Amino acid sequence: MKQLSKSNLHIALLHYPVLGKTGEIIASAITNLDLHDIARASTTYGVQSYQVVIPLDDQRRIAKDICNHWTSGYGSRSNPDRKKSFELINISSDLDAAKNHIIQTTGYSPQLIATTAQMIDGCLSYEKCRHLAYSEKPLLLIFGTAWGLSKDFIEQCDHVLEPIEPHREYNHLSVRSAVSIILDRLLGDFHNKKLDF
Amino acid sequence: MKQLSKSNLHIALLHYPVLGKTGEIIASAITNLDLHDIARASTTYGVQSYQVVIPLDDQRRIAKDICNHWTSGYGSRSNPDRKKSFELINISSDLDAAKNHIIQTTGYSPQLIATTAQMIDGCLSYEKCRHLAYSEKPLLLIFGTAWGLSKDFIEQCDHVLEPIEPHREYNHLSVRSAVSIILDRLLGDFHNKKLDF
Question: In the list A5, A7, A14, B92, which could disulfide-bond B98, CB 3.0-4.6 Å?
């Protein structure tokens, strides 16, 4: 497959509706390195935007303060590489606002692809998702904080991406690791060379 | 290639000798999520040990306190999955002590494989490194904190692994992302299925 120079992949990190430790639905707090690590990986692999969705007002204000530090405050001058990656971030209170941001910049409503560590019947393979990521219309690949996206939310998405390593006994990657590995599988030059897509 | 059920891969995270922002050699401080994320990814992919090398006494004490919380303190009871991943961690003051820990558990001195974001002539491909990771003798794959391993240190290693995405304009992954992606490329079931090793 001849690949376009730019993917149409966008990423969202949801802080609601996600699962708590005992399976209840919660709104989670932000984690500073979720902003840094996922923005840096997204910039490295050519992701088009990183949508951070946080319904809690105080948590959203903290996230915006951190982003402002790196995009226009002291951090933007002390570390221009970090500034570039933070410029990918858009912070919203809910998923509709994140989708609207993508509609405004691309002209299309994105397909929604949920991620989960659980194997679900009919999930989308990495090969198929990679094809979609280089097609004309935007994809929004959605990750959950805490113990992951809620089952009801996953069922409302257009597709569910296959888990990273579903047959492992231990299956507890951080969301930062999961995003990094999935971006490499979907957009990595390594796989352009190796895989017959 | 028929793969052995267990790899012989060990990981080290060095806090010295690594580069500071302006290229000087520094001893870096610990980052809590370096312990968590790399231990979780290492456990997921079947890494044999995670060697955290910290020369600064106070920083090493902090790292040990964090590890004790998760392996024998309250954290070990509140989150047994996290306990399992932290049990992979061995904290040392220098690389020789980390190597001795591997010699004591395996009977062999490990081959040392440095990682860097820079392309270096004669670097080891992922395919060759994957073969070595499933051979009889242990490999110690070494990552640097801060701005990466020093040039002199890299030259003392047996091999240097090829960079993750050397042809990208933006090349600033966190060490947590870099470890996750490299473990997936070297040990992931995804690649067992796809690649003709």
Answer: B92
